[in-house]
Amino acid sequence: MNSYSLFKGSILENLGLAIIFWYGILHAFGPDHLTAIADFSIGKSKKKTLTITTLFAIGHGLTLFLFAKILQTYNISDAVLGYGDTISSLVILAMGVYLLYMVFNDRIHLKKHIHHGKEHIHIWFGDEHKHDSKDSYSAFSIGMLMGIGGVRGMLITLGVVESQNVDFTLVAAFTLGVMLIFVGFGSIILYINQNLLNSKSNIRKVFASAGVISLAVGSNMILS
After folding, report:
1. What is the pTM (predicted TM-score) of this model?
2. Looking at the domain assignment, is residue 170 inside a domain?
3. Is 162 part of a structural domain of the chain?
4. pLDDT in tens, 135-154
């Protein structure tokens, strides 16, 4: 293989990665993804918000990689793939119902305390405040579930750039594009956490709004 062929191959490979990265950015702007990020990140600390958004993106990309590999080997109808969108819709609906249940049953709590001369606010669901990694695991799992709904769109893009030859580099580029938007949107939620969630009244309003938006987005996805 001559140097020109190598150069041409390198250009095409980099172009393919750029297209997949850009598709990841566009894909992340889906209302279902941003709604899920908001539902998980509201009321969380800066570290927890960053962890949640990152794990959601990684779980999303991992599912797309696995299913894209499966679809390269097995011929699965478009109708079956459409169930992925249904799963994503049901996840968003369930999250909306859960948030509204917590709001109307007064299951969202706030506690303020001073630590090293600085006020800290803790928000938690249920009866007991615990520091655990449940939210992080849940965000990763939900990211994987919702990744099923994006398989078709990613394969179409891969068909344009590389004849649907899926490798980890391409999926990594996609995941980075998704993560860029998720982390950026998480920063907006973090601003809300730090500036609005300072009273029980505001907490109820913000979580209720998130629940209603989740129901609206999920319902629209199922009906469309």
Report:
1. 0.74
2. yes
3. yes
4. 777 888 888 877 776 666 66
